[in-house]
Amino acid sequence: MSSLPDAPGSFVAAELASQPEMWRAAAALAPSVAGVLPQPGERVAVVGCGTSWFIAMSYAVAREQRGQGVTDAFAGSEYPASREYDRVVAISRSGTTTEIVDLLTAVPDQRTVLITAVSDSPAATRADEVVELSFADEQSVVQTRFATTALALLRAGLGDEIVPLASACARALTEPIDDLLDAEQVTFVGRGPAVGLACEAALKTREAAQFWAESYPAMDYRHGPIAIAQPGRLVWSLGEAPAGLAEDVARTSARFVHHDLDPLAALVVAQRFAVALAHRRGLNPDRPRSLTRSVILV
To answer: How many Cα atoms are found within 13 Å in the side-chain-facing hemisphere of 193?
Structure first.
């Protein structure tokens, strides 16, 4: 496991660095759970809360783009009870999140699959099938490797090659970020599956560093949000940007940031940025203010 000099001494630093290994483990696991994951032609809902919801968003778009069937993503609390799906996939690291437990309880007539790090959790007892990623569990409150490993597994189920993706992740761990840390604000943008990942990059930056971060579909960015672009701020594209966007950002004197990586690997650079910002600001990224590992409502 490599170390991250830009984020020393925290659980999340080690968890970030382990992601290539985690993704390769997901690729190895994928054949054994192929029958549990969504099948081509099925109508599928993917649900999660916070980070897991954004991972669900990314997967839903990727699955539809590959022509494998209607795929909708919902926050756990917003699942439309009146709809019927062939399979409902819930993503929950701890398996204790109230909205996910309640949802799995409320859809007894639909086939449910839980992707989790904890196989004996309350959510696991309510799901029809469980995919356990205990090897990707985390000590940090801030999610990094569990979420990306879940998406790597789901993408393997779509036929994506994950081992080369893990190599891209290793490269993401070495991309320079020191020259980005003086920014006063960052907006992440993406298209297709990268829209959810842009949302996750912004969330990670807010969680870990209490930093002003926003996210938008890249094509929609010019419909208003570009008004806040100015010197000292970043516009960070995960994946290929729309034609002309970099030039439009340059005219605002904001800095346009892009890495020639698969958006999932590019997310790792953004994770490192968030954690490095936290350290620079004297914060503990393992224990963000007002956050816990799981939201359990009473």
So the answer is: 24
Residues 181 and 156 in one domain: no
Predicted TM-score of the model (pTM): 0.94
Helix spans in 132-288 (H): 145-157, 162-172, 194-209, 245-252, 263-280
Residue 19 placed within a domain: yes
Strand order in the sheet with 71-75: 71-75, 44-48, 87-91, 112-116, 129-132
Is there a domain that residue 259 lies in?
yes
- Band of pLDDT at residue 257, cut at 50, 70 and 90: very high
Task: For residue 3, tell me if it sits in a domain.
Answer: no
State the Cα angle at 68 between 109 and 74, rounded to 5°.
50
- 45 vs 116: CA distance, rounded Å: 16
Domain span at residue 216?
175-280
Written as one letter, the residue type at 250 is A
The answer to whether residues 42 and 100 belong to one domain is yes
**What is the pLDDT confidence band of residue 215, given thresholds at 50, 70 and 90?**
very high
Three-state secondary structure call for residue 81: coil
Mean pLDDT, residues 89-107? 95
Pick from 133, 125, 179, 131: nearest CA to 34 = 131
pLDDT band at 291 (very low <50, low <70, confident <90, very high): low
- Segment holding 25, helix H or strand E: helix 19-29
